[in-house]
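Researcher: I'd like a structural prediction for the single chain below. Treat it as a standalone chain; there are no partners to consider.
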Amino acid sequence: MEWRDDGLIIGVKRHGESSVILETMTREHGRHMGIVKGGRSRRMQPFLQPGNSVSLVWRARLEEHLGLYAVEVVRERAGAIMESGLALAGLNLVADWLRFLPERDPHEGIWRMAEALAEHLGDPGLAPPLMVRFELAVLGELGFGLDLDSCAATGQRTDLLYVSPRTGRAVSRDAGAPYAARLFALPPFLRALEARPEVEEVLSAFELTGHFLERDVLAPRGLPEPEARRTYLARLRSLP
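Model: Treating it as a single chain, here is the predicted structure.
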């Protein structure tokens, strides 16, 4: 069997004396692994790093086999990511959330978002709101998507200020006013697609996604919040 695809490297593990197992998020084949022979060589090792985008050829005798990767790097970012604590924590967090998706299950939209995030991880104004939207997208792909388009009580699509922590649905100003203390704030940038909201607004959005990720994704598996997420939020709070 053989296929060709584009991918984002999210993990590298040693395999034998000279090879590596490359973990990638691909456009058409989802999160996928393969062996790169000679991947630890002086020529290849610097390029086979998380955060880099690659063109892949995967070959195996049977579909269920681990298979071999032939790799060509098309976008190098790893060096720049390593220079920023925020970017490095962000890359680790992207990889952590991608690993909740079933292996080899296509999620082209998630791949596109991961690529966009990787490209902008070093931008402290742009990357955090992208990361929040990425978390929302992961929730959706796992079957726990939030409905932020209309009010759960009235159906109206304007003046949405809150989110129900129980249903994950938006609530309008008037409908939510009596229960405001028990509702999450709905950060406006999540609906207006504002590219560079204020840090306080982004942190509020992370509180929102964190609640549903904890309740629906982490707690049922007995898992704590990823260390990369705690680190990312600490870095975000420390931005000037």
